[in-house]
From TrEMBL, chain A:
Keywords: Cell membrane, Membrane, Molybdenum, Transmembrane, Transmembrane helix, Transport. This is Molybdenum transport system permease. Part of the binding-protein-dependent transport system for molybdenum; probably responsible for the translocation of the substrate across the membrane. The gene is modB. GO terms for cellular component: plasma membrane. It is found in: Cell membrane. It is a multi-pass membrane protein. Residues 57-259 form the ABC transmembrane type-1 domain.
Automatic annotation (TrEMBL), chain B:
This is Molybdate ABC transporter substrate-binding protein. Belongs to the bacterial solute-binding protein ModA family. GO terms for molecular function: metal ion binding; molybdate ion binding. One of its GO terms (biological process) is molybdate ion transport.
Length: 276, 296
């Protein structure tokens, strides 16, 4: 029974699809493998534990953590409004929120510059108040949040839509207020989606480069995150650049692994209702 | 019961063959991966030897290429430092008009990026670097057909926004506290030059950002984010009225020289020699001087 239930689903895929899929997988894995062959292994640990490397890694982890929190704070309401609300221009808002996903990060950086920069839309008022964002760690966090927010919104909105509104309606019928429904029903229901969205947002923040370079600048310990450090080290010290790249790859693999281990069983469970 | 088993059996069989196929496929992929990795190692071992032999043929061919010039057609790929974008685009057009049948493909990037690309086998015929350090990298790796020729020089200048908000008048002003100065990182040529000028003038500049390229420095100044930035004279000139350049005498202590050379792997050495002759000759010098470059 168990075998018969699974096998037909698998054999519907033609063999040539497997071959092309393997080529696709190789296309991603091979460059990573090629990079590993260039790592200067005897010097690997000294290279990644040098002062500038550790400073950049620390800054990257700190700013990405703050960006992730900001993404959750801003992204959860945004996803709720997009998935549950009904208002004119909803579809337009949805497309616009996802824009940073498809925009080149450099464009995002320029847009942020003209918003929060010293002569920007908000920046000129902020500088009157004595708040300077450009060239500060705040600028790095803003750039990361800008590019990472759609990942969280998209992931959470998908969870909200697939979870449906049945439980929420039931809770409301039983007399629960909107706040209680949100706290006791909706959010627990989509927690896995929120978690994977947050992990993806963290990963995207960690890899942010273009918007940071354009908007925040590059100064050790303040704005020079790990990707910027790699970009700079590549000029004179390719060994360090490759070693640090590998560190980022390992972190990324760990993050992807973490996300899938967390969400895969849940996805199977939600899909299991169809089998039953 | 019997219906169930008869339905399950073919499914089971297919699963077994599928697994077998998958295993074979996995083996194939592993093999492929291994081949590529081995090939990668092999080629990097053979790299210096191959480059050495092509250098030998290049050296043998170069005396002839300088005097010859009968059939100058084909596509020449020129890798040039980003600061040469405007001048080399103009010179390439001039070259194509002078030599009908020839076509120049230009690739502009930071000099060290271009060196990396050429070292990894990018099909460049001519390389024009923004400094001697990057050109020497190719020279020591035996990737040049002949020794480089210097064709231009460039010095630093202070770029400020048109309204000069921090009231910068000299290099010493960059050391004032509260002035937002953006420079290149010491790892890149413009940053090395900036560090040298700092040392000579005894001015300690505390930059708010150390950028990886001079264009990023210029961008921070022209957008008004920074009060001042150290860029090359030609960059400030190219930015037009977006920035104001404040020249300072100490810039003469850190002159950047631009060398040009034919790459060892070039298949168009005569065409390459002709292009280099144009750049180093009077026509090239006229264009370069007009853009703010100095004599080599």
């Amino acid at each position: 029974m168990h075998g018969a239930g699974k096998a037909p689903a698998a054999i519907t895929i033609p063999l040539w699809i497997w071959v092309v899929a393997a080529a696709g997988g190789l296309f991603i894995l091979l460059p990573l493998a090629a990079m590993v062959t260039r790592v200067n292994w005897p010097q690997f640990v000294p290279l990644i534990t040098s002062g500038p490397s550790l400073t950049a890694l620390g800054l990257s982890l700190r700013t990405s953590a703050v960006s992730t929190v900001l993404c959750i704070v801003l992204g959860v309401p945004l996803a709720l409004v997009l998935a549950r609300g009904q208002f004119p221009g909803q579809r337009l808002l949805r497309s616009l929120v996802l824009l940073p996903l498809v925009l080149p990060p450099v464009v995002g950086g320029i847009a942020l510059l003209y918003t929060f920069g010293r002569r920007g839309l908000l920046g000129s008022s902020l500088s009157v108040l004595g708040i300077q964002i450009a060239f500060s760690t705040t600028a790095v966090v803003l750039a990361q949040t800008f590019v990472a927010l759609p990942f969280l919104v998209l992931s959470l909105e998908g969870s909200l839509r697939s979870a449906g509104t049945r439980y929420e309606s039931a809770a409301a019928t039983l007399g629960a207020g909107p706040g209680t429904v949100l706290r006791r029903v909706t959010l627990p229901l989509v927690l896995p989606g929120l978690a994977s969205g947050a992990v993806l947002a963290f990963a995207r923040s960690l890899g942010e480069f273009g918007a940071t370079l354009t908007f925040a600048g590059s100064l050790e310990g303040v704005t020079r995150t790990l990707p910027l450090e790699i970009y700079l080290q590549r000029e004179t010290d390719p060994d360090t650049a490759v070693a640090l790249s590998l560190v980022l790859v390992v972190i990324a693999v760990a993050i992807v692994g973490l996300t899938f281990r967390r969400t895969a069983p849940k996805l199977l469970n939600s899909g299991g209702t169809r089998d039953a | 019961m019997s219906r169930l088993s008869s339905r399950a059996r073919p499914g089971h069989l297919t699963r077994v063959t599928l697994e077998r196929r998958l295993r074979r496929l996995a083996g194939l992929i592993c093999g492929l991966l291994l081949c590529t990795v081995l090939a990668g190692c092999g080629s990097s071992d053979a790299g210096p030897a191959g480059a050495g032999s092509s250098k030998a043929t290049g050296a043998a061919g170069s005396p002839g290429s300088a005097s010859a010039g009968a059939d100058l057609s084909g596509t020449l790929t020129v890798f040039a430092a980003a600061s040469l974008t405007t001048t080399f685009t103009d010179l390439a057009k001039e070259f194509e008009t002078d030599h009908p049948g020839s076509k120049i493909r230009l690739s502009f990037a930071g000099s060290s990026d271009l060196v990396t690309q050429i070292s990894e086998g990018a099909p460049a015929d001519v390389f024009a670097s923004a400094d001697n350090a990057n050109m020497s990298k190719l020279e020591t790796a035996s990737l040049l057909a002949a020794g480089p020729t210097n064709f231009a020089s460039n010095v630093l200048t202070i770029a400020v926004p048109p309204d000069n908000p921090a009231d910068i008048g000299s290099f010493k002003d960059l050391g004032r506290s509260g002035v937002k100065v953006v420079v290149c990182a010491p790892q890149v040529p413009c940053g090395a030059a900036a560090a040298k000028v700092e040392q000579v003038t005894g001015t300690e500049v505390k930059p708010v950002s150390e950028e990886s390229s001079v264009t990023d420095v210029l961008g921070k100044v022209s957008s008004g984010e920074a009060d001042a930035g150290l860029v090359y004279v030609t960059d400030a000139k190219g930015a037009g009225n977006k920035v104001t350049a404040i020249d300072f005498p100490e810039a003469a202590t850190a002159v950047n020289t631009y060398p040009i050379a034919t790459v060892a792997g070039s298949t168009h050495k005569e065409l390459a020699a002709a292009f280099i002759a144009l750049v180093t000759g009077p026509a090239g010098q006229r264009v370069l001087l007009a853009a703010g470059f100095g004599k080599p």
